[in-house]
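Appendix C: a fully annotated inverse folding record. The material below is reproduced so that readers can follow the format used throughout the book. The structure is listed first as tokens, followed by the designed sequence.
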């Protein structure tokens, strides 16, 4: 518990599956944690449908116990990143659209919106985060039903938590101050692609990958320097041993010391800002002003 510390701020991130917290924003959370900010992770599903991507662990025993294994992997990754607390919404992984798993009534995609929003409201009111990070509405690059649902519940929960008439059984109303969306910026992949070619290595970033960025238009408002934290992301990813091939070129094709200097930023889009007029904050990025470099600007 760090909320008794000198900083007294709280950052909450909302993710779909175990491993999403490691691939997205691990550096920024670790940095916040080291600054004494309380960090809280909410994971919607158990990731039961994840493919085993590590050839050395791809056998029946792993598959039979995948829910338990992924729960332990998540705990380990959260510890590496520096999360103070992990909450699980307890839904089943929905698999990709059209799959059998997607028809399971227990899966996150099929959860009644009201129920899933309520679970999140309860955690927000309990933890009282100043800043919440979630996924945006534009997910054309990777339209996983669980990722879409994370967005679908986050925005209503942000507002409902603040409204005493909503979910009165789930605690005292509380208003978070900012909501951010994680952004995969094309520049990140382009920089990596260039570096692979420069080092005469085969690049995993073909056109398909370069086009997998979230949006045609760069909506980044906020870029966090995580240059001293790229190893955290790497170690946290490796903690998801069944999900991440340690020989993956995509994740680990470039040596760590090279990665540290390529694109050491986590990028975000500021979607709701109650520290000032929202319109004002949106205009500031549209007009090409400098990117914000602190998730807690206007708060601390
Ligand atoms: Zn995911």
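Designed amino acids, in order:
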């Amino acid at each position: 518990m760090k909320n008794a510390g000198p900083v007294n701020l709280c950052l909450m991130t909302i993710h779909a599956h175990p491993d999403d917290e490691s691939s997205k924003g691990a550096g920024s959370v670790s940095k916040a944690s080291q600054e004494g900010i309380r960090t809280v992770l909410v994971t919607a599903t158990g990731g039961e449908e994840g493919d085993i991507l590590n050839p050395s662990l791809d056998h029946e025993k792993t598959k039979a116990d995948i829910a338990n294994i992924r729960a332990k992997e998540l705990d380990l990754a959260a510890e590496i990143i520096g999360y103070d607390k992990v909450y699980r919404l307890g839904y089943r992984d929905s698999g990709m659209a059209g799959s059998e798993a997607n028809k399971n009534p227990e899966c996150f995609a099929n959860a009644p919106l009201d129920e899933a929003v309520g679970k999140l409201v309860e955690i927000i009111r309990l933890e009282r985060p100043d800043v919440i990070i979630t996924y945006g509405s534009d997910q054309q690059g990777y339209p996983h039903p669980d990722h879409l649902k994370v967005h679908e519940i986050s925005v209503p929960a942000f507002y409902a938590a603040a409204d005493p008439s909503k979910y009165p059984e789930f605690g005292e109303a509380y208003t978070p101050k900012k909501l951010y969306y994680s952004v995969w910026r094309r520049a990140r992949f382009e920089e990596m692609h260039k570096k692979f070619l420069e080092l005469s290595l085969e690049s995993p970033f073909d056109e398909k990958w370069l086009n997998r960025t979230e949006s045609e238009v760069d909506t980044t408002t906020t870029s966090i320097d995580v240059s001293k934290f790229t190893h955290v992301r790497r170690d946290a990813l490796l903690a998801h041993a069944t999900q991440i091939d340690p020989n993956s070129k995509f994740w680990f094709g470039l040596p760590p010391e090279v990665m540290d200097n390529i694109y050491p930023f986590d990028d975000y889009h500021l979607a709701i800002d109650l520290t000032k007029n929202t319109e004002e904050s949106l205009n500031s990025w549209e007009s090409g002003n400098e990117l914000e470099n602190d998730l807690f600007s206007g708060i601390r």
